[in-house]
Write a structure and sequence with these properties.
Two copies of one chain form a homodimer. By secondary structure, chain A is mostly helical. The first copy, chain A, is built from nine helices and no strands. Chain A binds a DNA duplex through helix 1 and helix 3. Chains A, B: This is TetR/AcrR family transcriptional regulator. Chains A, B: Keywords: DNA-binding.
DNA sequence: ATTTGAATAAACATGTATGTTCATTGAATG
DNA sequence: CATTCAATGAACATACATGTTTATTCAAAT
């Protein structure tokens, strides 16, 4: 019979937390560099400078790592919020501000979004967050659409929702437009509809 | 010393060709169902009802199968050609006809294009054909842009090129538009710019 | 000084894919 | 009838990822 004794962790707990963070950040970097679906537990461990077993002790499986990874990444890279555009006076200014906010966000985070879109069907762990983000985008498009003079014109709303999508950013990027030009062009689409 | 004798293959050659075709079609079906990057030689062999070794005898490696597969698929699914729209009278009609032609093509071939876009970075064998198709699309957008009243307006051309892309079809599809509504909307973007 | 426990190091079993080798079958060809 | 050869069936070596087990190290906590 061993005597039970209270054992309050202080530095131990902190060390453990730090190891966990190293693992999460290694996973995050790999998700960005080679994409979620190619990110193996072995690679994460190697990158974190940790034994493979250590990863398993912190996370039951790949999905758990990915979840921790996603939420940590979103904390570091928060998507644009409505305050960035809802203060604008005119309709055009508001639409432009929102588009530009998202386009700049996409520029800074393009590798991750590229990979996330690509691997979404294969990696269940990112499907939830992706659906959530899409719903958010959808709502933003709807809100801005309603706030415009043309009221609830569905073509206006749909054009906004399309313009706000990452895939649209990527398409216009590949056509050589910088972020301002992209927002200009998408704004012109919207203005054309309002006529 | 064995006597050499001429040996003209007739049915043998035909049988061999048929086996090759079975392999190519199995690969094609798998590319469509699970995507190029998950399509293994083992799976192709199994699907074709053939030994794995038989696949290796017809194709040196995965890349060779994929190449044969791509060109065969393109023969069966030829992209829209300019004759489908260049006969149209007005600018609007021509733009609409071209957009609709591509949108209907994408609808019929969406699974393959979805997978091709997704796996393009991972599967070298499809990068060539994809680049070729993109160049074709790019040219189509440019031609139609030039043919319009607004002449060589770069925003017009870029909007057309964006509208013709598969990713745009997919984005508008996810927003609930049918192909006619997609073409209508993209046409409205173009018209708005011409103002 | 002793106990606790996070992390290491090394191995094992399992699964899957690749690419290659070899002997065998059996129908097409001469 | 004898020869040719596409395809089979089975095995082998290699590589890599998963998930688990065991014993060991060593600093933190008491």
């Amino acid at each position: 019979m061993t005597k039970t004794r209270r054992y309050t962790q202080r530095k131990r707990a902190a060390d453990r937390e730090e190891t966990r963070l190293r693992i999460v950040e290694a996973a995050m970097a790999l998700h960005e560099e080679i994409g979620p679906s190619d990110t193996t537990i072995s690679a994460i461990a190697q990158r974190a400078g940790v034994q493979r077993l250590t990863v398993y002790r912190h996370f039951p499986d790949e999905t758990a790592v990915f979840e921790a990874c996603t939420s940590h990444w979103l904390e570091l890279n928060p998507p644009p919020v409505p305050t960035a555009w809802e203060a604008c006076e005119g309709d055009d200014e508001r639409v432009y501000a929102a588009l530009l906010a998202f386009y700049r966000y996409y520029r800074g985070t393009q590798r991750m979004w590229q990979g996330a879109h690509r691997d979404e069907p294969k990696v269940p762990a990112i499907q939830g967050p992706m659906a959530e983000f899409r719903a958010y985008l959808h709502g933003v498009g709807e809100e801005i659409g309603k706030s415009c003079a043309a009221g609830g014109d569905s073509r206006l709303t749909i054009t906004l929702q399309h313009a706000l999508a990452f895939t649209t950013w990527a398409s216009l990027e590949s056509l050589g437009l910088d972020d301002e030009a992209k927002a200009d062009l998408a704004l012109a689409w919207v203005q054309g509809l309002e006529r």
